[in-house]
Amino acid sequence: MFLEGLDALDQKIVSLLIENARMSYSDIAQQVGISRVAVKMRVQALEKSGVIEEYTTIVNPQRISGAVSCYFEIELSPQALAEATEILDRCDTVTQIYRVTGKNKLHVHAVAASAGEMERLIREVIDPLPGVKDISTNIILSRVKDIKGLRL
Considering only CA atoms, which of 75, 123, 121 is closest in space to residue 99? Predict the structure, then answer.
């Protein structure tokens, strides 16, 4: 198992919530064999401890007409990393920023409403980033597999 300290009952609860975060405490209780109140207490404890971070709706940008999704691999000089990360963090089109190992220091995901908006992001935000040594841009054509969070 990936998460030490998570007992079998919590693992079942988390697995059910991964499949359907809108599942009611009563439905979870029925499937795991404890009371609704006990499920609620366990879920609240998982939230408080940070095991469960949030519940959200995930929108598939490829299902929205004209939306463009890209990944950027950005190689930066070490002294420019903090400033570049701050600039990217302020940009609404940027959805994820990862600090990675290897020659590329940042892996960045962006979703734009159109090709024009993505081009503006590249021209006005990505290209002028300080300390850039190299940038690789990859347009996402289709989603083959996309798992959110940890699978138990």
Answer: 75
